[in-house]
């Protein structure tokens, strides 16, 4: 395990905030909740080659909740897929960093996502293809708990279990919120961990902001054979962002420069604490 | 392109699904990247021999079409060449967004095969009758939309489709089509086929309407009207050059499709003509109605898809010149 993971996560949260900074608005909540997971994935877990983004035998990440793109971009820049100066171009005309992940625009993005639920199926296709090719490679998939409203999620999970895709590790970012409010009020998804387990997934639940717990769960998932793996991430939407955390409607929000400066200062402070 | 037309039109001995399975199995033997997917309709698509030959490359996704399209897209991102089949209704209107984002927008290499076009859904009735499948997908940029006319054309197109890159929809009659082309005919995707020449009006046709259009040309000839018959088996990209040339030569057109006239072949031809060489156009097809249950010949009559309907439309078009 990489002991620097908390530091990597603190850096990634800070750089993700910087991605949003120039725009003044964005999908802040759902990006913040997956920062720790992305920090773990791109610091020792994902077998990728930044200098060769299309290397066929790489591990793949499908961020099915494509609106978390800004956090993915910050993670990819941190891993060296492109220069950090590009992070300032989010959603500018002609940018290679659109709101939602686009495999044809951004080096290191493995699948185009944005229409919720679809990334589950494409990830299942990727994992299946890795098996058919005989590659020693894995597919990682991030879905949101709100996204689990989509029927396609469950279609894909069923096929993954049926095909015994033990090279597929799914993260469910259970931040408890969706665009119109709390999941329990909009469409209660019930006991997701129990549902995933009953769908044939090797299911673990962890604190989604604890990098050590995430890393351990990933290792346990890799060691488990015969079933795909599900890691339920208990998270807070907007975590670590002062103007987004603990807000009911933080899916896509606007912020003032002052609010962003306050958030950046808090994230910087957190980074310094972790460094110390 | 090099085609020979049969002198006598009659139903082919083989069902198109048999040709589909045989050719795809042959291609899979040559190309290890070819994979086939189905959504619990393998018995309908006739793909059991493929599955027996290549069990590791046949994926039955169950009754989950949206997932099937995404899985196909994911497989293609790893270099596989997927052919995913279900009935035309479920292959298009049910999964429009999956085809849009996971296949076309993502610029992945996916083939969707939808069977039982239009009234060919016959006894499955209105719920299963794709009269809007091409219209739905025609609005998606870069899609390639094909309706093979008979087994000979299908056999020639499949290797081309397998070797080219892009998001394809193949609208396929799975039963016995009327044989129009002699074996060995060669087709070019994106290019229409002039089946017979004429001076007074052009009959643009596709699918089961090709045989009807050829018959209509004979009926018109008896009335002194010379009709050109053009098989536009590629609905997108449409053969703009040929359509304009036909409008210049004949000055009137009838479009003939086993599909809703809203957004279909008639619309595609009209979109070309209004921008280039406006001529009178009549549209034979289902006139923005839902389908219904019944034998195919009954439904052809019910929706005015017969040769006599095309001939009457041609006379109207000529009169409007």
How would you describe this protein?
The complex is a heterodimer of chains A (276) and B (321). Chain A is globular. Chain A has a five-stranded parallel β-sheet with strand order 2-3-4-8-7, sandwiched between helices. Chain A has a two-stranded antiparallel sheet with strand order 1-9. Chain A is built from ten helices and nine strands. The longest helix of chain A is centred in the last third of the chain and has 19 residues, at 257-275. The model of chain A has no long low-confidence stretch (mean pLDDT 97). With 276 residues, chain A is of the alpha/beta class. In chain A, β7 (202-207), α9 (211-223) and β8 (229-234) form a beta-alpha-beta unit. Chain A has a single domain (5-275), classed as Rossmann fold (3-Layer(aba) Sandwich), CATH 3.40.50. Chain B has 321 residues and is of the alpha/beta class. In chain B, 40% of the residues lie in helices and 22% in strands. Chain B has 13 helices and 14 strands. The interface between A and B is medium-sized, with 33 and 30 residues.
User: How large is the share of residues in beta strands of chain A?
Assistant: 5-15%
CATH superfamily of the largest domain in chain B: Thiamin diphosphate (ThDP)-binding fold, Pyr/PP domains
Number of domains of chain B: 2
Terminus-to-terminus distance of chain B: 32 Å
CATH superfamily of chain A: Thiamin diphosphate (ThDP)-binding fold, Pyr/PP domains
Number of helices of chain B: 13
- What pair of chains forms the biggest interface? A-B, 33 and 30 residues
Largest sheet data of chain A: 5 strands, parallel
Order of helices and strands of chain A: HEHHEHHEHEEEHHEHEEH
The best one-word shape of chain A is globular
CATH class of chain A: Alpha Beta
Number of domains of chain A: 1
CATH topology of the largest domain in chain B: Rossmann fold
Shape of chain B: globular
Number of strands of chain A: 9
Oligomer: heterodimer
CATH class of the largest domain in chain B: Alpha Beta
Give the SSE string of chain B.
EHEHHEHEHHEHEHEEEEHEEHEHEHH
* Class by alpha and beta content of chain B: alpha/beta
Alpha-beta content class of chain A:
alpha/beta
